[in-house]
Amino acid sequence: MVSPHDLKSSFFSYTTSSHELEQENRLLKETLSQLREELERFRSPALMIAEVVDILENDAIISLPNGNKFLVQVSKGIKNLYPGENVLVEQRNLTIIKKVSSSKKFNVEKFVIMEKPEVKWSEIGGLESQTQEIKEVIELPLKKPELFKKIGIQPPKGILLHGPPGTGKTLLAKAVASSTKSTFIEIVGSELVQKFIGEGAKLVREVFELAKQKAPSIVFIDELDALAARRMDIGTSGEREVQRTFMQFLAEIDGFKPLANVKVIGCTNRLDIMDPAVLRPGRLDRLIEVPIPDDSSLKEIFKIHSKKMTLDKKIKKDALIKKMKGFSGAEIKAVCTEAGYFAIRNKRTKINNQDFLCAIEKVKQEELDGDEFAGMFG
Fold first, then answer.
1. What is the SS3 assignment for 262?
2. Considering Cα of 248, then 250, then 255, then 256, what sign does the dihedral take?
3. Three-state DSSP class for 294?
4. Strand stretches in 100-216, DSSP E
C-alpha cells in the first residue's frame, strides 16, 4: 500500500519534471524562431546604398554610386529625410527602406597634405613680379583685411599659377602660406579624380570644411586641369563624376567671402585646356604665369641653391649658367645636387667646374630620356 508521503513525493517530482519540460520547450521554440528569422535574412536580397538628392511630396530623387538618378518611393516609416543623407534602397524598385546612421564623413586629413611651411621669400629666385603679385592678392588680404574694407574693394578669392613643370609654382604657394602663418592644405587634382570615384564631391566639400576649421589657411590644388579641364562629352559615368566634383569645387569657391581667411591657389601646366567657368570673375580670376627662368633669373636661382656648397675658386659661373639656358628651377637644383655627388664619388670635399659640367649633361640626358618615354604614349 502506497503511503501519503510517497504520493506527495511522486507528485512533486512529476510537477518539477513538467516544469522543466515546459521551460525546455519554450527555449526550443525561441531558438527555432531565431533560426527562421536568420534564414529569412539570408534569403532576402541585399540592399543598395544611395544618396538623397532632393525630396518631393511623397517621393525622393536618389543618386546611385554609378551616378544614375531615379525618382523613387519612400517607406512610410521613414521620417525627417533630408538631401545629402545616405539611405538603403531595395534593389528591384529602389524604394527607400531606411536611413543609414553611420557617419558620412571622411577622415579627410588622411587624403590631403597638411603642413605649416617654413619657406621664405628669400629662398625663391628670379620670380620678383610673381612674388609681388601673390603678396598683393593673397598675403595682404590675410594680414590686413581692414585695408580693403576702408578702400571698399574686394580682393580675389584665389589665384591660378600656370607654367611649365619645375618653375616654382608650389614653392610660391608655400612661401605665402609661411609668410601669413597659414595652414597649407595640398590636394592633387588627378588623385582626387582617380581615387575617389563616387565620392569626389563629398571630399571637396570636407576639404573646404577643414580649411575653415584650420583658418587662416590656403587650399593648394595641384594639377587642377585634371579636375577643371574643358569637357566636350560627359556621357560616361567617369566623366559625370568628374563634372560633379568640379561643380562642387565651384560651389565651395562661390560659398565664401573674398575677405575670408581661406584662400585658394590652383596650379596647372595646361592653361589652354582649363574650363572658363573656373577663371571667371569671383573665382580663380587672377592668372599668374611662372615661366622658365631667363639669364638673370638663372643666375639668382643658381646662387640660392649653391650658397651652402663648398665650391672651388676656379668655377666659371657665367659659362655654367649659359649651358643651363632653358633649365627650370627644379633642374638647376638637380644640377647642384648631382655636382655634389660627382665630387663625393671622386673623394673630394670641394666641387669643381667639371663636376658641374658632368651634372648639367646628366640632367639634360634625363630630360631627353623622359621626353622619348613620353613620346611612346603621346
1. strand
2. positive
3. coil
4. 113-115, 158-162, 183-188
pTM for this prediction: 0.70
Q: How many CB atoms neighbour CB 317 within 10 A?
A: 14
Q: What SS3 string covers 109-141?
A: HHCCEEECCCCCHHHCCCCHHHHHHHHHHHHHH
Contact yes or no for 173/267 (Cβ under 8 A): yes
Percent of the chain with pLDDT over 70: 85
C-alpha cell at 367: 630630360
Q: Domain containing 316: what range? A: 295-375
Phi/psi of residue 228, each to 5°? -120, 30
Q: Which amino acid is located at 346 in the chain?
A: N
To 5 degrees, how large is the angle CA 149–CA 150–CA 151? 95
Using the CB atoms, write b or e for 150-183: b if 16+ within 10 Å: eeeeebbbbbbbbbeebbbbbbbbbbbbbbbebb
Low-confidence ranges of the chain (pLDDT < 50): 373-378
Q: Look at residue 196 in the predicted model and tell me its pLDDT.
A: 62
Q: Is 218 found in the same domain as 112?
A: yes
Q: Nine-digit cell at 176?
A: 605665402
Asked whether residue 238 falls in the same domain as residue 338, the answer is: no
Cα-based angle 106, 240, 225 (whole degrees, multiple of 5): 80
CA dist., res. 42 & res. 36, Å (int): 10
Answer yes or no: do 93 and 112 share one domain.
no
Residues 88, 51: Cα–Cα separation, whole Å: 9
